[in-house]
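User: I'm putting together notes for a lab meeting next week and I want to include a structural view of one of the chains we've been expressing. I don't have a solved structure, so I'd like a prediction I can at least talk through. The sequence is below, exactly as it appears in our construct file.
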Amino acid sequence: MYDQTDNAQAKIKSAMRATGYTDLLLLTVLLLFGIPILAFPASPQVNSGVLNLYEHFLGYALGFMTPYIARTQLPGLY
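Assistant: Thanks for the context. Below is the predicted structure for the 78-residue chain, given as structure tokens.
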């Protein structure tokens, strides 16, 4: 059985002490929860019709897929 000596709480405390990691964590949480709220309105009704949420979501997903694929499939890039 694998015995993990490091626990998550110690890793989080260590990351919070490092310079810039707190800012990165706050920005990540803001983007994770803020952008979907701003990008996808509760009511898709607009003045002249209905907002195409599928197309909007597709662009949102493609925006995240590109850096993920670049990082995982092209390791020489970074």
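A couple of points you could mention at the meeting. The first strand starts at residue 45 and ends at 46. The mean pLDDT is 76.

User: Perfect, that's what I needed.
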